[in-house]
Amino acid sequence: MNTADTTDTTGAAAAVADTTAAARAAATAPRARRVALVAAAAVLAGLALPATAGADTARDPGDADPAPARYTHQILNWQPCATQPALDCATMAAPRDWHHPGVGADLTIAVSRHRATDPAERKGTLLMAAGGPGGTGLLRPAGLAKAAPAVGAAYDIVGFDQRGVGQSTKAVCQTPAEFQEFLAGDYRDRSPAAIDRVLTNSKKLAASCQERSGDLIPYLNTEQTAHDIDLFRSLLGERKISYYGPSYATMIGAYYGTLFPHRVERMVLDSNIGFDGTWETFQLGQPMSFQRRFDEDFVPWLAARDATYHWGSTPEQVRAHWERRRAALHDSPIVEGPLTIGPNQLDNLAISAIYSASHFPDLAGLLTTLDTWQTADAATRTAAATAFNSYLSPEFLAEFFAVTCSDTPWTKDLDTWVKRGAENTARLPLVGSRTLAFGAVCASWPVAPAPKVKVTGAHLPTTLMLNSVHDPATYYEAALGAHRALRGSRLVTVTGNGDHGQYPGPDSCVTDVVERYLLDDEAPARDLTCASPQTS
Asked: How many CB atoms lie within 10 A of CB 520?
């Protein structure tokens, strides 16, 4: 998702050294023999055991405890998914707390499956998870199978709604009205009254999660989800699975690979969370990366199209136009029926749109509509107001905060967050202005941090990592840290690109590397670079 954050803004360009030709050459190199990987892992085994691993010598070294029999003896009752006939759906019961599986009511986890379209050439099962935290993953296998038909032919692609979201047991924190109040106003406003209002809303959100889902939220974290995945694997009858995860799902995959390394056949992590550190550190880096994407990619793009959108012919003119329009919304928000467009809604629209350059025209068109609001027809205004108010949802934020606030520790001092909020608002306002609102939620969170999983890469096969240099949400600097932590991984750096999520997509270099890895068992011999194709 897009609330994450480190503050090092250097090193991205310096780390991009390979040419596209070299990237293709590296992609054809054969993967190291499995015996060599196992031997190397054995040397490191004494240093790599995760804190949650037990001492049962009957299982593979480094793997976490297996699931109790009453869960592994379930039968998945596959039926066509109600809203996606290309998939089969089922549910499985999982412990509320994997560390105490006999305590508390079980959770329901909704799972799905897209059968390999070429059973004769089937390689195995590829599990995919959703990002966020807060995204739903149940129907995603159908999209991946369609966008990557060669992978859909060779694998059963399976997915799930992780605990806390979608058709799985859900967390409830806020009503839609309360959620709109949390996002209302102007996060840049540093007046005492505005700061008090933000702090009150953040504390209220944390308290409402405790009040309405207090018996669930302690168990909504990445480590528990990794155990759910291994239960799903066992119910599928697979000794090993392959994995594809974008965005936050890179952290899910890294945790799963750490807790159950011998259950992983292949792993692709696309647009990487800084899973080597804390959520607080990671999210404190996002103001930099979103501002970079906005200033260096979108603003010049819009300036080059002044004849179409009339927002200025230079980056300076576009930024000035943005500030004028935002100030006008601060003084006089636009109200269209039940929907309000204020400064935060303007920021949120941009935050959402700059995930992909393919959305730049949509964002530009909506900015033009703001300038012509009084003369626009009613249907245009209603559609625009809906777009400006469609950012996230109370269901998404319930899971988002449950995971990010409890996976790792947070600074609890609210004065520190007030200071950080002021600094980020002044320097990096697009996302930095909401530092206080989001940080104060986790500072007020009632749940103690979950067990920390230290990602090392021990016992894992070569893991393939993808990241663009201007990704706003999972920024490149954090991906470098995650890559260093996941020893033996290979990082594919995508240059000339700031999109969030690189596979499947139009870049033939990325597609070639990923599909050689998944289909031909050929991992790159070293890190490499793919140059993004240029689009108009």
From this structure: 12
> Each residue of 479-500: pLDDT tens digit?
999 999 999 999 999 999 999 9
- List the end-to-end C-alpha distance of the chain, in Å, as a whole number: 27
**In contact, 462 and 433? CB cutoff 8 Å:** no
Q: Is 55 exposed, middle or buried (0-12, 13-18, 19+ CB in 10 A)?
A: exposed
Tokens of 358: 């393919």
Task: For residues 199-220, give the mean pLDDT.
Answer: 97
Q: CA Rg, the chain, in Å?
A: 23
CA 263 to chain centre: 23
Q: Rounded to an integer, what distance in angstroms lies between the CA atom of residue 25 and that of residue 144?
A: 26
Annotated domain spans of the chain: 68-170+218-278+451-531, 173-215+280-407+411-444
Q: How far apart are CA 275 and CA 75, in angstroms?
A: 33
Report the C-alpha gap between 432 and 424 in whole angstroms.
4
Specify whether the CB–CB gap between 531 and 171 falls below 8 A.
no
522 exposure class (CB count in 10 Å sphere: 0-12, 13-18, 19+): middle
Instruction: Please give the model's pTM, rounded to 2 decimal places.
Output: 0.88
CA 285/CA 390 separation, integer angstroms: 24
d(CA 201, CA 369): 31
User: From CA 482, how far away is CA 271, in angstroms rounded?
Assistant: 11
Domain spanning 68-170+218-278+451-531 has what CATH number? 3.40.50.1820
Residue count of the chain? 536
